[in-house]
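lol forgot to send this yesterday, sorry. struct tokens for the thing we talked abt
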């Protein structure tokens, strides 16, 4: 008969056939992580989550930070939900062809930031999220970028009105 809960979890990580995507003269390796939840003995009910991980060896960002940023984005967007498991550190490292230390660093950063919880012997899972905290972090990042924009405007003698007009155009997407 059917049991409730997770009976089995299977991770599949496949390299995208478009392994060399030219973006800004950089080559990105694209990996797709499939997470399948098996809900019954008959394997009749399953739910798949899809998360793509883009890694660029030519990016100025370290690989662990690229992984961290993309998993954070998947959690914030709702693509990964509370309680969803992540691939093991060793499995992810093997499939991405990177060091276990790199993957471990990404997971440690995610755990310190409150995005995931590690359960010894069971793995890493998406932690309950605080939307207000994520909003505050986003606002802080926006403020930092706007401060740089104000400094650049002052340096270039760009008026406040021109800055507001430019911001309005950018925000509207025109």
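and heres what i got for the seq, position by position
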């Amino acid at each position: 008969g059917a049991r409730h809960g997770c009976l089995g979890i299977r991770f599949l990580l496949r390299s995208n056939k478009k392994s060399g995507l030219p973006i800004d003269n950089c080559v990105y390796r694209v990996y797709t992580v499939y997470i399948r939840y098996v809900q019954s003995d008959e394997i009749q009910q399953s739910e798949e989550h899809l998360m793509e991980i883009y890694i660029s060896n030519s990016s100025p960002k370290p690989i662990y930070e690229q992984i961290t940023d993309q998993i954070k984005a998947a959690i914030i967007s709702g693509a990964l939900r509370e309680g969803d498991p992540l691939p093991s550190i060793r499995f992810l490292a093997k499939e991405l062809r990177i060091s276990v230390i790199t993957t471990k660093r990404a997971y440690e950063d995610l755990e310190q930031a409150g995005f995931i919880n590690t359960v010894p012997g069971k793995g890493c899972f998406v932690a309950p999220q605080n939307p207000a905290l994520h909003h505050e972090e986003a606002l802080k990042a926006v403020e930092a970028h706007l401060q740089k924009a104000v400094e650049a405007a002052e340096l270039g003698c760009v008026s406040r009105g021109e800055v507001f007009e430019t911001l309005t155009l950018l925000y509207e997407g025109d």
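The helical segments are 63-77, 89-96, 100-112, 131-155, 160-172. anyway ping me if u want another try
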